[in-house]
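Re: the 220-residue chain
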Amino acid sequence: MTSPTRRLRPDAVLIQAVIAGALSFAHLHDLAAAAGQSGWKAWAYPVSVDLLLVAAWRRLRVGRDRSSWTWFAIALAASLGANVATAGLLDLHQVPAWLRILVAGWPALAFLGGTLLVHAPTPDAPAPVMDEEPAAEVEMHRTDTPDESAQAPVRAPELAPVPLKPPGAAVPPALLDHARSIADTHRTTTGEQITAEALTARLGLPAPTCQEIAAQLQLT
């Protein structure tokens, strides 16, 4: 089999770019030569302007910062200025002094711009977000038979509820000492222990309080 031959089709944009580049290159050369840059130096100026223009354009494609736009505008102004100056608006036989100064200072300016454009840090591109695949579900089956006796809960023996003694009334220590003094006086006088009813009558306090005092004094 024979490979199909590719036909070269003329591209209008490419042809226009070649024509524009050639004319701009020639205009820059003529302007540099008129400003006193003879020989190979006149041909180096168009190369310097175009290289700075390309470097700024490449930088703009990566990240549009203010520095890239500034140097792109400077290189474009130099190229357009040469085109306009050589169109008959400027006498190339009597070039003004300010234009000679601009042409003489262009190499240093172009070197500075190219260095800043090439060695400036490139903004980091955002990392692509990877779609995380869900983990595969693993179904587990037990092959052994569980022991029902081991899994059965063991019940604790039930304990009979212990009746709680209702808390008595709180007796102040001073009142308890007073009641003990009455009981001691009664024992000294009569030779017998005072009864709970007698102590209640002597104290004249509520019955729960007297019962608690009698319980603490162990009176019947």
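The CA atoms of residues 32 and 41 lie 8 Å apart.
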